[in-house]
Structures are given as C-alpha cells and as structure tokens.
C-alpha cells in the first residue's frame, strides 16, 4: 500500500470538479491544498493545465469523472449550462450514495426538479452557490449558501469550509434554498449598483461632469464610498464592471412568479436592459448589457406631462 493510501488522503473522498475556470479553478486548487484527491474536467485545455500543474488529475471526459468520483462539484457559467450538464452527464451516470454540489447560480425551480431526479437514483444534489468573486475563490473566503438535505449538507461541511470561511458556509434550508439566498445576494448587489448608476446618469445627462459629481457626492464612508467605487468603473471606461446582474435576473423573476409574488424593481431593471443589445461580457464571460451605457444613450421619455393637482 502506498504512502498516499495510508496517509491523510486515505480518508478523504475523491472529488470530481467540472468547470475549473475563473471560480472553479481556484476552488479545485484549494481542495488540492487541503489534501483532497481531485479529478477535473473542462472544455478549456489551459484551465485544465493549471489544475493539473497543481496536482489534479484530468479526466478523459466528464462521464469518466462522474464514475471515478464520490463527490462531484460543478462551477458552470449559467443555469442553462448546469441543467444541460446535469441532464446529459451527471444524472445518467449517477450512482447510489454519490453527492453532487452545484456551486453556480441556477434557477431554484430547476434545482428542486433535478434534486428530485437525483434522489430517484439514490444520489444527492446540494445547491451551494457562492459569492466573493475570484479573489474570494483564491483565498478560500467565499460566502456559500447551501440548500438540500440537512444531513448531506453537514456531511459536506468540512469540504465546503475549505472553500469559504466556516462562518460564511450557511445552511439555508431544503433544495433550492441556497439558490434563493444567492438571489437575495445578487439582487441586493445588482439593484444597488443600478440605483447608483441611475443617480449619476441623472447628473451627467442633466449637464454635470461625472468627476464633479464624485467630488461633490462621493467620499470614503458608507454609501458615498460605494458610489465613488462604482463611478471608478465608469471613469476607467469599464462600464461592464458596474454589474447589475442582468444575465441572472430572469432566474429570480421566474422564482417570484412561480411563488406568486412580484419583484417590481427587478422587473423594471430587466425590461429596460432586455430591450438593449447584450454587447458586453460580465465576470463570467456571459453576454450582458452595460446599464450605464444604456442610461447615457437611450433617448428620454416624457412620462410626467400633466402635474395638475400635485
């Protein structure tokens, strides 16, 4: 028996990791540092090479990875991509006792549907979307919102705490709950950024230079500091980094509609952006809309023509 088989790694499950890009790559490397044996799969050879250089094993294909792993993590760019991979690769090859953990942002309804399908195969699906960006993924300080069976989530806690600080790994409830809490996170970020951008666009389109606005209204404390930070992306000519989460807004709107309630601000933001061309890429390389550019370029509409009685 080799040293590896008798050492600390002998008690750790084999981890399969599908999608080792901006977020998944650093997460896989942190699991390697913690001693987990990790098998990786990705369509990008350069991303695979970075992981194998750190000690991972590259699978011939995703199907092989599933067969050889006890716990399979995925970090994929969209809900649609995860659903496709789950239906085409994960479910067909799932084995009793396996655990699948979706680290990406997926529609809660799809998560619940897929979790039921995994359960029929005596396997488990956890939704564990993350927040904290590439920096958090590299440092192992991510926020992780966990949904699914409580016992399975607890079983996976030691692994997840290698990816996020222990106090940031929060069990949120049954299947789909992690995705709902991720929605709270994304809407708070996206709607907040949109509000600051619209406020600044009001000043700019009404004739005041953005630098002057930042000097007058910005600062270092509280919301003034956040306004200055968002304005910094505009002044650096990277408006796409002032991200209002446009690609993910339908996930949260669909869940709200399915539950029978409205998200009026989210719907207004989505409808405004959806009428535009998605000519930019967000931090996950998804086509998106630069809300700032739309605010600056779209002609105004007179909606308050009659103020009598006000």
Q: Which descriptors would you attach to this protein?
A:
alpha/beta; N-(1-d-carboxylethyl)-l-norvaline Dehydrogenase, domain 2; disordered C terminus; 310 residues; six-stranded parallel sheet; 14 helices; Rossmann fold; 50% helix
Walk across the major sheet and give the strand order: 3-2-1-4-5-6
End-to-end C-alpha gap: 84 Å
Give me the number of helical elements. Answer: 14
Unreliably modeled segments: 1-8, 306-310
Annotated CATH topology of the largest domain: Rossmann fold
- Overall strand count: 11
CATH superfamily of the largest domain: NAD(P)-binding Rossmann-like Domain
Number of domains: 2
Radius of gyration, CA atoms, in whole angstroms: 22 Å
User: How much helix is in the residues?
Assistant: 40-55%
Class from helix and strand fractions:
alpha/beta
The CATH class assignment of the largest domain is Alpha Beta
Strand content: 5-15%
- Quick one: overall form? globular
Would you tell me the overall average pLDDT?
A: 93
The CATH architecture of the largest domain comes to: 3-Layer(aba) Sandwich
Largest sheet: 6 strands, parallel
- Please write the string of helix (H) and strand (E) elements: HEHEHEHEHEHEEHEHEHHHHHEEH
